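Two proteins were folded this term; both appear here.
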Amino acid sequence: MLETSHPPVYYIPPDDVRADVLIPADGATWCEWKGRAAYFDVVSANAVAPNAAWSYPSPTPAFSPIANHIAIYPAPMDECRVDSVLVSPQPGGFYGGWITPDIVGPFKGEPGTQGW
């Protein structure tokens, strides 16, 4: 998904994500466009990344195609790739955009973008 002043966020269909790597986490956030986001801890055999994935169980009607799809913050992962291209996380830690060399900012989250 592309949003204004953001690199892409990938919402993965739930059937394409192993259920054993996601544990529902406490807390939620509210997006004025998409609605309430629920969070997940991402777990592996060796680590837990708290609140590192999210989903919109009941998004607003305009965003119904992403209902229950999973998005993952790239920063807490060992690495994320789009095809074979290494991803850099969107700056700032709040947004979950995936930046590859062909994606050019400026993006929300960088210093000085709070008022965008």
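Next, the second protein.
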Amino acid sequence: MTVQTTERAIRLPVELFLLVVVGLFWGAQFGFTKIQLETMPPVTGVAIRLAIAAVFMWAIVIAQGARVPTGVRTWRDFTIQGILTSAGPGVLIAWGQQYVDSALAAILNSTSPIVVTVITLLYTRQESIGPKRLLGLALGLGGVITVIGFGALDGLDRGFAGQIVIMLATLGYASATLFGRRFTTISPFAAAAATITCSAVLMTILAFVVERPLLIDPSMRSMIATVASGILCNGLGVTIYFRLIRTLGSLGTSTVSFLKAAFGVVIGCFLLGEPFTASIAIGLTAVLIGVAAVNETGANKGPARG
């Protein structure tokens, strides 16, 4: 136990850096999605993005020589994970962003760690949750609210349907963080390639059912955003995500939602010319401290869980 704790303490800075990278990639996806929606319907856009990500990831798997499981049960689990991480949330958020302000979408989408905490406490008990982790969660969520601004909450009476589907996407992310623990013995490259491929197939079928993907005429701007989103957010981001589930655990990895929301706003400030205010600086600092508190060695010490 002492050896494992020491090893975790040594690699923690690297894992936290990777967590920030995923937060940056997934935070940028809010902007990519907005650009994509300019000339693409939501389901078709997600299907194209996932197809690009799948091709990119299989190229890495082949180059790495990673072993890909072939069992039917494993691929069933890959399909479920794909629905929870990429397919389901991707479509729900893309659809919801047509009707919900970006700030409100970000704050609704940042609550995954809270859901993971509740599920862990009441159901799975896979990880113990001590006072430091609970404090970190509260601080992180408070930081997200500060970054986005309390004024964002004024929109809760508008776009109710959009808000509901975005919250459903949050439930999917939270469930995926817990479900993904069963892939810890599989190469993160192989796990990412397999789950994204399953997602791409499902979304392509759905696109032909509910939209007309062959008739779209996307702009170059939308296509660039789609390619960037596929490679960075769904490709590299999901690969690192599988690694973090193994190293930081379900709850630690779920705090990427705080970073995602914070970076989504910060990226908007620099790319869209919005002012970088003191509340953004203070809130982002709180987010980073909260993430560090949740993942600090020893933060999970608490009552033993089955």
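The first helix runs from residue 2 to 36. Residues 30 and 89 are 12 Å apart (CA to CA). These notes refer to the second protein only.
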